[in-house]
Design brief:
Function: May play a role in anterograde transport of membrane proteins from the endoplasmic reticulum to the Golgi.
Family: Belongs to the BCAP29/BCAP31 family.
Protein name: Endoplasmic reticulum transmembrane protein
Keywords: Coiled coil, Endoplasmic reticulum, ER-Golgi transport, Membrane, Protein transport, Transmembrane, Transmembrane helix, Transport
Pfam family, one: Bap31_Bap29_C
Shape: elongated
Radius of gyration: 39 Å
Number of strands: 0
Strand content: under 5%
Largest sheet: none
Length: about 190
């Protein structure tokens, strides 16, 4: 919980950067993290065992309530205590696993945020400290790209006009060919292709 609070605390940028850099690059922290991963595997095994035990104790409790087992105050107390302990163990191990997932994901989100902030600062510094020559070059490049875009739009417009004229001429040719065929009485099957 303390680690989670440290990760989500509103720390200044420099402090957060130092802490996250230390946690992500330190070989000692890497060894501790490796040991924690192994221990969380054992906690996961304990969680599975606790869930199985909880179901087994719950089934025994239901069986005792149905009256098939000798009802005694000590038996009921023993069953209630076993049920409580099995549920407690299930919740403790489950919350421990959930907290490990939350801690890991929060750490990597914070690390990504730190890297993104660094990239943003570099980009901001690069654009604000850019010289007038770079700005002039970029303006020339923008003007050149606008000219190319206008030329391409003109070519596209000319091509569309040419396509429209060609389709109109084809339609007119077909109309005249049909009239000619009707006038001369010839039949052409070329239009059916």
């Amino acid at each position: 919980m303390a680690t989670f609070c440290l990760l989500v605390a509103p720390l200044p940028y420099t402090v957060r950067k130092k802490v996250l850099t230390f946690l992500s690059e330190s070989p000692i922290v890497a060894k501790v993290a490796y040991a924690l991963k192994i221990s969380f595997i054992f906690v996961a095994i304990l969680f599975v065992d606790a869930v199985q035990r909880m179901f087994r104790v719950t089934a025994e409790s239901e069986l005792a309530k149905s009256g098939q087992v000798l009802n005694d105050v000590r038996t009921e107390t023993n069953l209630a205590a076993r049920k409580f302990y099995s549920q407690r163990n299930t919740y403790l191990t489950g919350f421990t696993l959930f907290l490990s997932l939350v801690l890991t994901r929060t750490f990597y989100i914070q690390l990504d945020l730190l890297h993104t902030q660094e990239q943003y600062a570099k980009l901001k510094k690069g654009t604000s400290s850019g010289s007038a020559a770079q700005n002039g070059d970029s303006l020339k490049e923008v003007a050149e790209l606008k000219k190319k875009l206008a030329a391409e739009e003109a070519k596209t417009r000319d091509f569309e006009t040419l396509k429209k004229q060609a389709s109109q001429q084809a339609a007119e040719f077909d109309r005249l060919a049909t009239k000619y065929n009707e006038a001369t009485g010839t039949v052409s099957d070329k239009r059916n292709d």
